[in-house]
Amino acid sequence: MHLRFIRQILIADRTYGVGETAVFNDDDLRAKALIHQGVAVPVEEVREATAYVVKQARRATKRGKQREAIDNNTPG
Q1: CA–CA gap between residue 64 and residue 72 (Å, rounded)
Q2: pTM to 2 decimal places
């Protein structure tokens, strides 16, 4: 399981900072516990959330509104 840390944490002798990523075994209970505690999130969720933020930022700009209008008028 690929995790991105949203809070700083010390695991064993390694400190993981905000935004760092780590790979844990899929059956690793530590990874599941970190997610449950709100210390880390799966990388896939971060990508989707980031894409949503970028999309919202584009909508807020004049050029983004023009792109959205063009995309909405395109058939298909």
Answers
A1: 12
A2: 0.54
Range(s) of the domain holding residue 21: 2-73
Burial string for 9-47 (b: 16+ CB within 10 Å, else e) reads beeeeeebeeeeebebeeeeeebeebeeeebbeeeeebe
Q: How many CB atoms lie within 10 A of CB 3?
A: 24
Q: For 5-60, write each residue's pLDDT tens digit.
A: 999 999 889 999 998 999 887 677 888 899 899 999 988 755 555 666 667 676 66
**What's the domain count of the chain?**
1
